[in-house]
Amino acid sequence: MNPVLFVVRFLGSITMVKKSVNSEDVIGAFIDSSPIPQFIINPDHRIIFWNRALEKYTGIKSSEVLGTDKHRKVLYHAQKPLMADLLVDGDLEGIKKWYQGCKKSSYVDNAFVAEEFFPQIGENGVWLYFTAAKIKDEEGNVIGVLETLEDISQRKNMELSLKNAKKEWEVTFDALPDLISLIDVDHNIMKVNRTMAQALNMKPEELVGKKCYSLVHDTDEPPSYCPHEKLLQDCQQHCNEAFVDSLHGDYEITVSPIMDDDQLRGSVHVAHDITQRRKMELDLKESEEKFREVFNNANDMVTLNIMHPEGPGKFLEVNQAGLDTLGYTREEFFELSPGDILSPEDQKNIPEKFKKLQEEGYINLEMTNITKAGERIPVDVALHIFQLQGQDVIISVARDVTERRKAENALIQSEKKYRTLFENMLEGFAYCKMLFDDEGQPIDWIYIDVNPAFYELTGLEDIQGKKVTEAIPGIIEAQPELFELYGRVTLTGEAETIEVYFKPLEIWFNISAFKPAPEHFVAVFENITERKKAEIALKESEEKYRLISENTGDVIWLMDLDSQRFTYISPSVYKLRGYTAEEVLDQSLEDILTPESYQYLMEKLPQKIQAYSLGDESMKLQTFRVEQACKDGRTVPTEVVANILTDETGNITGLLAVSRDITKRVEMEEEIQKSLQEKEMLLKEIHHRVKNNLMIIASLLNLQSRYIKDKKALSIFKESQSRANSMALIHEKLYRSTDLKRINFGEYIKTLSTDLFRTYVGDPSRVRLNIDVEDVMLDINTSIPLGLILNELVSNSLKHAFPDERTGEINVVFTLTNDEYQLKVSDTGIGFPSDLDYRNTDSLGMQLVTSLTSQIDGELELDTTKGTEFCIKFKEKEYGQ
């Protein structure tokens, strides 16, 4: 098929297909089945179709290029725009620039054709003749460009061959049987072949320079039918037939222009002796004229072939449409019979069909022709037998039904797709015929077809073929707007959409209506009742929260983070700051806050927002205390609870916050703080006095011990003094600490152990004290009993572990691991007596250790494998405030 004619038919077919099935798949199938290489790009220069013929021609699969602009690289080594690229942009100057030999197509509006060598294709490159045509939608908008390609390498090679054959032409010129002459624009003979000279009974050189009409026609001027004279007018080839007296016969004279640099230099005259053919033509002319008129102008393929008794013989005649369709030359075609152009399956049926043709004289068939290239073409064939010069001849008229078959298949596929969509779509679908009264007013409609979703959404049953007034009585009065809508769409053809509350069914519908055919409409609808309920609930909720916002004592506000401007603020801001909401909307955050509060917020807020953006959800809701400036110059302390707002993609868009006046709270806090300070001073004084009293007791015990001679009694006094000192030390640390309820027990251990060491060890070089403790804060209720335990254990080691001037070490270790405290007091002395049960002893010190360990819910363990080691494990209790 001619590529240009294909573009014409294709662009028309696209419109037909869009109107009938609206399917890109059909267009794709149409292009894909074409034997002509072609592709389509969209306005973004992206390939949307790349047919199989182009795949085969370039070796590039459509999957490699669809959605890309690789057609440039496929067809050119360099980045040169294709004509399709320029045409889709409307760049006519670019087309002229890149394709200087281009011209407008004479077949297709707004299309261009050109020839170009494409080195990228094949091993040695190819010459292509290509056509680029715009594809427009129904509104005339360009939606793409179709480019078809035709390989003209053979023609170009022929031109090259002709150039190479110039010398051969010189040799063969004289040997040709036709009479050939070269004549200039003044009718002077420039050259003749020997045949021409012999026909005129002259030598070739004698003819050069003579007027052609003088020698051939024996006239003083060219005859009226002179083809050379016509050629001088239009520079076109001309051919006519005439009886030439000087040559004594009928000749077919063909003149062709000789051009040099677009200038006409003369013509080539070829005179072919047709005397015998003319005689035969005259014999056939009368019977052939009528037939030839029809035969030559038929768009369908028309053939003649002899009818032999055993079957149809070779073809006698074929029209140009048949040659174009099948791809044969006339000479090749006359060597064929009908069986040679039929598909294998149709060849098997030739005897049966031929017999029926013989019996009935005519027959209509559906068959498949095979082109010279092997392409299958479905055809409808009409065969008739008639007499031609006394012989039975079969005339066959074959119509190419390829496009009709494609359209039929496309319609079938479209119907399947439509039916599948129709049956499975979630929206209700109703195809209806509108009924009007004599005045053109809509009065009813008939349900022609509805889908399953229609029944499911409406709850109606068996409605097909019924009028709506029969199916839903009272609908005209209940829903007059539907009759107006459907009537208007049916009359104007303009699609419309409406949301309507369908009173008979108590359902909200979103209805889209359009006109598929005259007097008909289609309604596609969905149940939006839940959405409408949600919208109503949302409006009610918005109204409720608006009332809350406008009547609450707190100030509710929205702020854009980029501009630091308020987008909403509740009217209660007037009560807080003396400004109206409208005035505040014109203020920035810096205008609203005191300088100190603004600086504080600008330091803290970005940090919180950054942390939230990195995934810390705890930062979404934040509380700040800031001072706000009032219109009368005052400042008011406020507590701001800010919630970070995000859009549907998670991007932070602003803040929703509530500001509350905390003036009274601040005043109460100040009073509480003042009261707390007074109580702290009182508690410090109590600790100080308790410590002093304990120290007095220790001093009194010390003074009294000077008068005691009994060693045992003296020991008891010293132990009591030590215990008083240990408790006094705790109260001293509490007195000096900022925390009046807890002390650093690690420091306490170091101080107490060192004091005991100095009290009991006269020679520090004999016994070494090792202290390994952590700085751990303990409640006073734990510290006092634990301090007494420490006092007893360290005192015991100092007094009893190293008798007789022995040397050794005492170790005190205090650690915290997983909420469990451990206090270890160990020595390398003589060891704890094996016959003494430390849990049941008369020793007051061990009784204190056991009792106080129980008081703090601890566990007491004794290890005597290496000296003596006491270990107390406990978890600190939760004491009331």
UniProtKB/TrEMBL annotation:
Gene Ontology terms for molecular function: ATP binding; kinase activity
Domain PAC: 112-164, 363-413, 620-674
PROSITE patterns recorded: HIS_KIN, PAC, PAS
Pfam families tied to this protein: HATPase_c (PF02518), HisKA_2 (PF07568), PAS (PF00989), PAS_4 (PF08448), PAS_8 (PF13188), PAS_9 (PF13426)
InterPro entries documented for this protein: HATPase_C_sf, HATPase_dom, His_kinase_dom, PAC, PAS, PAS-assoc_C, PAS-like_dom_sf, PAS_4
Residue ranges occupied by any PAS domain in the UniProt entry: 23-67, 165-220, 287-361, 541-612
GO terms, biological process: phosphorelay signal transduction system; regulation of DNA-templated transcription
SMART domains: HATPase_c, PAC, PAS
Keywords, ordered alphabetically: ATP-binding, Kinase, Nucleotide-binding, Phosphoprotein, Transferase, Two-component regulatory system
Coiled coil: none
Tagged with keyword Metal-binding: no
Gene3D superfamilies: Histidine kinase-like ATPase, C-terminal domain, PAS domain
Residues of the Histidine kinase domain: 685-878
CDD domains: PAS (cd00130)
NCBIfam families with a match to the protein in the record: sensory_box
Protein name, UniProt field: Signal transduction histidine kinase
Species for this entry: Methanobacterium formicicum
Origin organism lineage: Archaea, Methanobacteriati, Methanobacteriota, Methanomada group, Methanobacteria
